[in-house]
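Quick question, first post here. What does this chain look like in 3D?
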Amino acid sequence: MGPKAALLSLATSVPPHTFLQKDILSAAWDVFGSRFPDYDRFAGIFANTGIIKRHGVKPFDWYLTQRGWPERTAAFFEGAEALFIEVANKALADANLNATDVDTVVTVCSTGIATPSLDARVATRMGFRSDISRVPVFGLGCAGGASGLSIASRLAQARPGSNVLMVTIELCSLALRLDELTKANIIATSLFGDGAAAIVLRAGDGGDTLIEAAGEHLWPDTLDVMGWNVDPLGFGVILRRTVPEFVTAELKPALTQILARMDRNMEDYGRFICHPGGAKVIDAIETALSLHQGTLEHERAVIADYGNMSAPTVLFILERYLAKGLPQRSLLTALGPGFTASCVSLRRAA
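> Answer (accepted):
Ran it through. C-alpha cells below.
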C-alpha cells in the first residue's frame, strides 16, 4: 500500500442570504397553515430543530412563489457555480496551491442536475488545466461529505504526489415545495439550508490529518427512509420521521461492522464527528454510541448556525474540530439515502 492521503486544507462557504428560523416559521404558517389539516401540530417542529438561522442562494421572498424546473435549475447554476469558485479558491489558498496545481476534482452534489457537470461549468473561471480529471458524484445526499472524502482520498492515494480537490455543494433550499402538503415537506422546510465545503488532499507529503480508512454500510429495503421524488416541479423530499429511532437501533451495529473490516473498534476513537441531521438525530446518535449527552457540541452548534446543509454539514463540523485539535484517531460519520452509513477514519500524522 502506498502512503495515506493527507488533508492539506478544509474551507467552508455559505451563500449571502441569511434567514432566521423564526421568520421561516412565520412564512410557513402563511403558506401551509390554512391548507394543511392540523398544521398547528407540526409547527412545533421548527422550534425543536435547534436551528437559529440558515442560508439560501436566493432572497427570502423568492421562495414564496411556486417555482418549476427551469427556474430552479437557473438558480442552481448561478448559486452553485458561485459557491464552487468561492470555496474551492479558499481551500486552495489555505493549501498554498493554485487551480493549475489541481490534478483531480471530485464534485459532490445531490440538489441539482448539471450536464456538463459543475466542475466543467466553472473550469475556465477557476483556471483548471485542460488535462484535469473530473469526478462528479450525485445521489449520496447527507452522506456525501463522508463518502466524497472517502472517494477523494482513494484517488489521492492511487497517485501519490497529485493534488485532489473535493468540493461538495448542496442548495437544499431550491427543493422547497409550496404544493406538497405532507409531513415530510414540513420537516424539510424546518431543517434544510444551503452551503459548500472544499478539501485539498495529497498522499506522500504534508498535512497533519491522514485519511486512514473508510467504509460504508447499506441497509437492505430502506429506499423509503430518505431521498428525492422527481416530478414536473422539481425534487420532492422523501423523509421518514422514524430516522431517530432507526439511528438509535441500527447505527452502532453498522459502525461496528465497518470498523471490524478496518481492524478497528469503537474504543480506538477519541472523537466521533457526526452529520447531525437534526436535534433529535443528534440525541439518537449520542444514545446509539453511548456518548454523554452534549458530547456532540459542534454538531449542535453547526445545526444552530446553518441548519442541515446535507453533504457539506459534516465538513463544517470537522472544520471546528480541527481548529480545536483532534485526538490520535477520530471517526467521521454520516447517514444518507440508500439508507447508508458512511464513515472515514482520521488519524493524526504525528
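The chain has a mean pLDDT of 92.
Residues 69-94 form the longest helix (26 residues).
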